[in-house]
Amino acid sequence: MSLSPNLHLVDNEKMPTEQRVKNLLSRMTIAEKIGQMSQVQSYAGWLTDELAADIKAGKIGSIINEVDLDTVNAMQYVATKESRLGIPLLIGRDVIHGFKTIFPIPLGQAASWQPDLIRQAAHVSALEAATTGVNWTFAPMIDISRDPRWGRIAESFGEDPYLTSVLGVAMSEGYQTEDLANTGAIAACAKHFVGYGAAESGRDYNTTNIPENELRNVYLKPFKALADHGIATFMTAFNDLNGVPASGNDWLTQTVLREEWQYSGMVVSDWDSIKELSVHGFTANDKEAALAGFNAGINMEMASSTYQDHLLTLLSEGKISLAQIDDMVSGILKLKFDLGLFEQPFTNPEQLPELVNPQHLALAKETAIKSCVLLKNQGQTGSKLSQPLLPLSLDKLNSLAVIGPFADDGYEQLGTWIFDGEEQHSQTCLSAIKQLIADTDTDLTLHVAKGVENSRTTSCDGFEQAVNCAAQSDAVVMVLGEESILSGEAHSRSTIDLPGAQEQLIEAISATGKPIVLVIMAGRQLTLGNIIDKVDAILYAWHPGSMGGPAIVDLLFGTAAPSGKLPVTFPRVLGQIPIYYNQKNTGRPVTDASCIHMNDIEARAPQTSLGMTASHLDTHYTPLFPFGFGLSYSTVEYSNLTILTPSVSLGGTVKACVEITNTGSREMEEVVQLYTRDLVASVTRPVKELKAFKTVKLAAKERQTVVFEINTDELAFYNRQMQLVTEAGDFQLWIAGDSASTNYVEFTLTEN
Ligand code: NOJ
C-alpha cells in the first residue's frame, strides 16, 4: 500500500525508523538523493559561502574533518533549517586512539588484552569528539597485519584474527554505546575492507594477493565479528585485492558483506578510493569509477566526487536504477535517524564532560600501564645487581641517568593519528620522575641527556654528555624508539631497527657498565636483536599517549606491575618477516635439530635436499619474542593442564583447565591464553590458533584454577568450497602465558 501524499509530510520520532526513511525518501529529488551520497572535506574552521550553498542545495550528506564547534553547528543549521528537507549532516573525523586525551596507539591498546579498558577508552574518545559535533569516527581499524614494515600496523590490533575481533567489538561498543542516539555516542567504522594490511613488502597502498580461503579464515574474520555486532559503518580499502581494487569489488561488498553476512549498515569508500579505481587501471575514467563503486554497494563516496558528477548520467543511461539509489540512500538516512540527528542536530558541549578532565587522564594512564610489555628483566652479570633490575627502588638509588630523545618529548609519545591531540596535555617520563621525587621527598639526583636529538639522528655528537651522565649514575633509564611520524599511513619502513644512531648510543652507554633499563616508544615491533644483550631490562611502551610518562614511571618504580602481552610476533631479524605464530606446519616443519646455521656448513659441502626443513640458514626459526609474550614483576607457573572433555560432539562445549600459581612475592595480573590446533582438516590449519583468553589477578603465592569453555563452533573454518565447517577429528589444546608453549592436551571432536 502506498502512503497518501499527506502522510509523506509526517515525520516524528515515534515512527519506526524504516517508515521515517521511506517517508523522507519519497519527498527527495534525485539530485538530493545523490547529494546524500557525497562526503566532502572541510577543515577551514569556518563555513565558506560555497559550502553553505552546497549544503543548502542538498548536495552534501556528510562533512569530514571539521571540528570547530561553531562551524559544525552552523553547518547543521544550514542543513536542517535552510535546506529544502532539513536533513542533518554526518560529521566524520578520524578519532583513532583519543580526541584530546590521547590513549596508547591501538597496537599498544591491543597489548593490554583488556576489552573493558579499550571499550572505556573509546567511549571517552567519543565523548570528547562529540563536544565538537563529530558524530562518526573511522575506527576501529581491524586489518590483520603480519608485517611491521607497514606503518599502519600502529593503528591495528596486531596479527591475530580472534584478538582483533574481540578488541574491535569492544572499541566499537565504546564509541557507539548501546544506543547511537545517546548523547556522546558516535558511529564507528570497521576498516579497511579488506586485506589492506597484507600490502606487498609492507609498502602502504600496495597490491594484495590473498587466496579466498586465507581471506575468509584470517582477514575477513574480524569484519564478520564487527558486522554481527552491528557496527554502524564499514569503509572499503584502497588496495587492489586479487586483481580487483577493494573500493570497486562487488564480490566483497555485495556478495560477502550484504548477501552472506546480511549487513545492513552503511558503507563508505576510503578517501578518493573510488576515483583511484582508474589509477589502478580498473576503470577508464571517473564515470566508470562511479559505476564500479556504486555497483560495489558503496553508499557514500569520501572526498572524490565521481558520484556527484556522474550518477545522474548513469541513471539516465539506464546503467543504474532509481531503486538502487533509493536503497543506498536509505542506509545513509537510517544512520542519521539512528544517531538521533533529526531530533538533535546541534551540539551543546555543556551536556558532555570537559575535555582532558582528570578522569579521562586517569583512564589514559591506566590504559598505558596495561599496554606496556616487559620484554626483559635481568640482573646484570658481573654488576652489583643480582636481582632483576626492575622495579627500580628509590631507596637504593642515589642517582639516575635519564637518557634519550623521548624521555621528555610530549609530542612524540602521542603516536600516529592524533589529529586533535595536543602536546600540552602530555606528561613525559622525565616530568613524572621529577614528580615522583617531589612527592616522595627523595634525594635522587637526576642526570639528563638526550644522546641523540631525535630517533633519526645519525650524529654521535650527543654521546659524550650522555655517557658522562650514565657514568655518574647508579642506573640508567634510556627512552628510545621511533618518532610518531615513522609509523602510520604512508609511513612504512624497509628496516625496523631502532633508527639513526640509537643502537650505537646503547652500546656507548652499555660500555659504562651501569645497569640499563631501555624503554621503547614505537609504532610497531622493532628488531632488537642487536641490542638486547646490551641492556638489562626492556619495557616496550609503544606510543603510550598523553599519560605515557606517569604510566611508565609507575611501572619502572613498581607502583604498578607490567601485565601487557604482545599482540604481534617480534622477529629476530627483518628477513624473518612475515613471521607470525599462527603459521601453517608445512610438509617439512623446522625443529631445533633440523635448523642448520650456514657457519656450520663445510666449504664445498655436497648438495642435498634430504632432511631439509623450512628454515633460514642465517637466523633461528623462532622469533625473538613470541605472540602473547610478556613478563611481570612476579613469576607465574602453569601446571596440571587438563582436558575435561576428551571427547566432544559437534555443537558441544570443549572444557579445559589449568592451575596457575604466582610463584613470586607480589600481586600480578596474568593474561591466560587458550590455543588449539586442528591436526587434520580438509584445508590445512595453523599450528596454533588463539581461541580464548582471560586476565587473572593473583596475589603473591596464590594458586588458581582457570577453566575455559569454548563451543565447538569456535573451531570452525572455511573449507575448499568456502563453507564454514567444523570437522570431526583430533585437536591439541594449550593454556599458557604465550603462544610458544609446548605443553598441550588432546581432545577429539566427534560427529553427533
Ligand atoms: C584515509 C585512511 O586510509 C582512512 O583510514 C581514514 O579514515 C581516511 N583517510 C579519512 O581520513
Key traits:
752 residues; alpha/beta; Rossmann fold; six-stranded mixed β-sheet; five-stranded parallel β-sheet; 20 helices
Question: What's the structural blueprint in terms of helices and strands?
Answer:
Blueprint: H1 5-8, H2 17-27, H3 30-36, E1 38-41, H4 49-56, E2 62-64, H5 69-82, E3 90-93, H6 106-110, H7 115-130, E4 136-137, H8 161-176, E5 189-193, H9 212-219, H10 221-229, E6 233-236, E7 240-241, E8 244-245, H11 250-260, E9 266-269, H12 277-280, H13 286-295, E10 301-302, H14 306-316, H15 322-338, H16 358-371, E11 373-377, E12 399-403, H17 429-440, E13 445-449, H18 463-471, E14 475-481, H19 502-510, E15 516-521, E16 537-540, H20 548-556, E17 636-643, E18 647-649, E19 653-662, E20 668-678, E21 689-698, E22 703-711, E23 717-718, E24 724-725, E25 729-736, E26 745-750
Parallel strand pairs: 1-2, 1-10, 2-3, 3-4, 5-6, 6-9, 12-13, 12-14, 14-15, 15-16, 18-26
Antiparallel strand pairs: 7-8, 11-16, 17-19, 19-22, 20-21, 20-25, 23-24, 25-26
Residues 94, 138, 191, 270-271, 489 line the site of 1-deoxynojirimycin.
